[in-house]
Amino acid sequence: xxxxxxxxxxxxxxxxxxxxxxxxxxxxxxxxxxxxxxxxxxxxxxxxxxxxxxxxxxxxxxxxxxxxxxxxxxxxxxxxxxxxxxxxxxxxxxxxxxxxx
Length: 101
Fold this sequence. Notes:
Blueprint: E1 2-4, H1 9-24, E2 35-37, E3 53-56, E4 66-67, H2 74-84, H3 94-100
Parallel strand pairs: 1-2
Antiparallel strand pairs: 1-3, 3-4
């Protein structure tokens, strides 16, 4: 989950990288990326220290939510997801990659 602010420069910088990462994992049915505007939405259970705040919610609902600490590019985002996902990672076929990206 990416929590962003529309006026945030860091959010604007990571937005295209997040979009490419989203497209790169589209074939992984058990992994979902989402985002919401933290200035328009309230989520009491989320501690926002700054924007963007990126969180991983594990499959096991009793497990701790993980705060993003990866690289702020597509490769860093994907590596971080791979490190935290409980599901088998499915790489796209070359045809899927060309069509999606």
